[in-house]
Specification:
This protein is an alpha+beta fold and 544 residues long. The chain has 14 helices and 16 strands.
Length: 544
């Protein structure tokens, strides 16, 4: 592996991060950053630099270096050319397939991802909240309770806010590899990308609505009934959650990182091969461009920039030049193959880069908020802190700490306070299969402790007939049910993870009691979840 290959390699992969530097609204880059044309996006940084120089009245004769970066017949333009055509020619299909395959493999290996409902749901297979979430959209259906007395079925729809934003704004949502994607700015990197949302629906629990009674239809009653509970649906919204991933910052430009990175590359044969392949195939692409690509009309490009300081005319002219040049170079059948090889090895690089960043940044740390609406119980606000630590091949540990508060003002005469419960929990996860297996098995051992200062509160709806009588309760009431104190739960679970994004968890649990009943409980949980990140290509979006 030569220094030339190493330089080409870092230049290729550094392009996206360099181009993502924030721009002010008055600079040309602020315009081309919003452009959806692949050629303009890939060459945005160089176009912005060129326009800035022209706006400063730099003479055309003094811009030879800038011209070379935009002239496809010059070697300096090859790296951005590869990025620009990643979503075109035959490389688009090949690269999407390679990216989806790697995404699926990575999801199979992950032990930090949670797609289903949390421990407090009536249908769940997860005793501990994990730090990770779905990458695009996930759907999970879980049956069997852990801390609840009622065994129900819960459907959970989860999403990452950044991936949804990229999808609805016509940007490529499959940006895990950063092969042909650019950052949309600070808000995306620091807020959207770290924020995951989910909603849980209790499928086996009937929802009700309180309605006013207009009088007795038959018979006689000792007291008038003013309100009644009527069914409003076969399923109900059980909870809404927001999860924000907090990451330690780490500067890859620091000498300490560069030293660690060099050691990691030197020790990895696949990385050395990827760097060499990128260099070799980039040289072949350069040769094709030099042979077939038309030379850039430097005077016309200069005049385009001169006529409009905003950069619009320049971007339009360059896109026309790029399109015409691409038609000429596409006749070389080896070009798509070489482009695919470069992109696939960029993916290998970025996988290792992400691993290096994770090692440098430390372990996962996440905070989660959930608005919970349990059936016939007061609504709650639940707050959870999630800490995860990976032991590499020795598995991973996740720990939770959290508390729950009752929603809104307490009823008059309430014998309980706003504090519902506090809990701590932990679990150990270990992949049991070899990394080359098409099916992955993940073992989970979990323990949960919850303390309630008061027994659980049960809402008795208006119109409910008091047990042993024919007397309806006119305005509803609340009763303590179960016991205060500690709730202990232990669970063992096996999750079978398929390459297509399908997970099937099966668990067995024991608890000393549940939220409403005092007796111990042995239960089983089963679920199925599907991560739609493997279908990201069907959501469209431009290749940036």
């Amino acid at each position: 592996m030569t220094m030339k290959h190493f330089a080409v390699f870092f230049l290729a992969l550094g392009t996206s991060s360099v181009h993502a530097v924030a721009q002010t609204a008055t600079t040309p880059a602020a315009f081309c950053d919003k452009d959806i044309r692949p050629a303009v996006i890939a060459f945005c940084h160089d176009l912005a630099d060129f326009q800035t120089q022209v706006n400063k009245n730099v003479a055309e004769a003094d811009l030879s270096g800038d011209f070379n970066k935009l002239d496809l017949s010059k070697p300096q333009a090859a790296v951005d050319f590869i990025t620009a055509v990643a979503g075109q020619m035959n490389a688009k299909t090949a690269m999407q397939s390679a990216a989806q395959g790697l995404v699926g493999w990575l999801n199979q290996q992950r032990t930090d991802q949670q797609l289903g409902a949390g421990a407090s749901a009536t249908g769940t297979t997860s005793l501990v909240t994990k730090a990770g979430s779905s990458q695009l959209i996930s759907l999970a259906v879980d049956s069997g309770g852990l801390t609840r007395s009622v065994n129900g079925t819960t459907a959970t729809l989860g999403t990452n806010s950044d991936q949804i934003f990229r999808t609805v704004t016509n940007h490529n949502p499959n940006c895990l590899l950063y092969v042909n994607c650019t950052s949309l700015g600070w808000f995306e990197d620091n807020i959207l990308n770290k924020l995951s949302l989910s909603a849980g629906f209790s499928l086996a629990q009937q929802s009700t609505t309180t309605a006013a009674s207009s009088g007795q239809a038959s018979g006689s009653a000792s007291s008038a009934v003013s309100n009644v509970a009527i069914p409003s649906g076969a399923g109900r919204l059980a909870n809404i959650s927001a999860k924000f991933e907090v990451r330690n910052k780490f500067d890859p430009h620091q000498q300490a990182f560069q030293s660690k990175w060099k050691d990691l590359v030197d020790a990895n044969a696949d990385m050395k091969a990827a760097i060499k392949t990128i260099g070799d195939n980039t040289d072949l692409i350069k040769a094709t461009l030099q042979k077939d690509a038309p030379q850039l009309d430097q005077d016309a490009l200069y005049q385009a920039a001169k006529s409009d300081k905003s950069g619009t005319v320049l971007d339009n002219y360059f896109n026309e030049y790029f399109t015409a040049a691409l038609q000429k170079v596409e006749v070389d059948a080896s070009l798509p193959v070489n482009v695919v090889n470069v992109l696939q090895n960029r993916a290998t690089y970025h996988d290792l880069w992400n691993t290096m960043l994770d090692n440098a940044a430390g372990t996962l740390f996440t905070v989660q908020y959930t608005f919970d609406q349990p059936l016939n119980q007061p609504k709650t606000h639940d707050f959870t802190v999630v800490y995860g630590y990976s032991f590499k091949t020795m598995g991973a540990v996740t720990a939770n700490g959290g508390f729950s508060l009752y929603d809104g003002a307490l009823p008059a005469g309430a014998q309980y306070g706003r504090f519902h419960y506090g809990q701590i929990s932990a679990e150990y996860d270990q992949n049991l299969s070899g990394k080359t297996s098409s099916l992955q098995e993940q073992l989970t051992l979990a323990a949960y402790w919850q303390y309630q200062p008061q027994p659980s509160v049960l809402n008795i709806a208006a119109g409910t007939v008091a047990p042993g009588t024919n007397i309806p309760i006119p305005n509803g009431t609340q009763e303590f049910v179960g016991t205060a104190g500690s709730l202990w739960v232990a669970q063992g679970k096996l999750t079978i993870k398929g390459a297509g994004g399908i997970d099937i968890p099966v668990g067995v649990s024991w608890s000393n009691k549940t939220d409403l009943l005092q007796d111990s409980k042995v239960g089983a949980q089963v679920g199925i979840s599907y991560d739609l990140s493997s279908l990201s290509s069907y959501f469209g979006g431009s290749s940036h």
